[in-house]
Amino acid sequence: MKALILSGGKGTRLRPITHTSAKQLVPVANRPILFYGLDAVRAAGIEEVGIVVGDTHREIRAAVGDGSSFGLRVEYIRQEQPLGLAHAVKVSHGFLRDSPFVMYLGDNLIPDGITDLVHEFEKGECDAQILLAHVPNPSAFGVAQLDARGRVLRLDEKPRKPKSDLALVGVYMFDSTVFEAVNAIEPSGRGELEITDAIQYLIDHGRRVRSHVIHGWWKDTGKLEDMLEANRIVLTSLERRVEGSVDAESQIEGQVVLEKGARVEASVLRGPLIVGSGAVIRASYVGPFTSIAADCVIEHSEIEHSIVLESSQIVGIGARIESSLVGRNVRIWRGEARPKAYKFMVGDSSEIHLS
Q1: Tens-place pLDDT, residues 245-282
Q2: pLDDT attached to residue 341
Q3: I need a surface site. Which of 202, 224, 268, 334 has the fewest CB within 10 A?
Q4: Domain 2-233 grouped into CATH 3.30.2350.10
Q5: What is the DSSP letter of 88?
């Protein structure tokens, strides 16, 4: 069995971060989201992986390489335009050939893994297997209708009036019959080849499509609030590990991960949280559910429930920062010059909330 991991797309809902970074490489607990998917695939016993890439292909290649660091053999498949999930399957035929495969969306996070589901599919009792989850906003997803026995009757892509609250999770399993479907369907009104249409084609042509409703949590991390929620849940699973330096004036409480080379001076750290190597926390408070990446500086400031990417500085911010995503090489600081005024240099598609 092979795996197909989708790492294209423009990540418009996470701009401006994704103006300069692939959305699949935005970190959760200081680790790119994509890496969790690669771990899940390897844990399921799959070794051959095709990664579908788009405009950010160089960045994805630099991060993953040949896959050997994950115990995988990785091949890259270029999707010139983001024309839908079914289109990604279509352009991957040369890699997949007749092998059954799992398709995993690279910006999804399923901490419980997919091992049992892959093993179930490998028994060959169905042609496709989809994962579903109950969600409060099904119109934002592909939605499934099931009969009383749990068989899939119909799939609709982002319906205005959803007929159930069962959303498609970003993990699918197919045998080679899916290629008949992706070659038969037409682009939707969005101009994309929808995977929901391909699966519906399989259903309509008598193929065996099985569903599995997951009851653990799952996140499509395409939006800020979902990124922060995923970060929160992953951080709660980390064990305390303090390998950096902590001076006598500091307090470290709870599940705190302090990487080698990080320094804490005259500060309070209250976990769960993680601080990357080379970061400096000085005269500050870092609260729960916060990820501070490598080489950052937090000084005379307070922050919690946030993600700060590499080499950023937050200095002299009196009010507490919370529920925030700060990009790479960002500097947020408070000056003492008079007259007092806010001063910004802000990129496209940014958002600033001043309370």
Answers
A1: 999 999 999 999 999 999 999 999 999 999 999 999 99
A2: 59
A3: 334
A4: no
A5: H
